[in-house]
Design brief:
By secondary structure, this protein is mostly helical. It has one domain. It is about 80% helix and about 0% strand. The chain is built from three helices and no strands. α1 runs parallel beside α3 and α2 runs antiparallel to α3. The longest helix is centred in the N-terminal third of the chain and has 26 residues. It is globular and about 35 Å long. The protein starts with a helix and ends with a helix.
Length: about 60
């Protein structure tokens, strides 16, 4: 179980970096998730964080 929570924490850190990168792109005039963000979303979804990945996708598409 410890391994699971460590993996979750690692994925959450990646998600946070992903959000920061996406917000940075949006502030420069972009309006969609970057390819890197999409790659992270795919990776996160495969790690069982589909809900958070989906929320980030929604945030990135606004």
């Amino acid at each position: 179980m410890v391994g699971m929570s460590q993996e979750f924490a690692c994925s959450t850190r990646l998600l946070n970096k992903c959000v920061e990168a996406n917000e940075s792109d949006v502030s420069k005039g972009g309006s969609k998730a970057t390819p890197t963000t999409q790659a992270y979303l795919t990776m996160l979804a495969s790690h069982g964080l589909h809900h958070q990945a989906k929320m980030l996708a929604l945030q990135g598409s606004q």
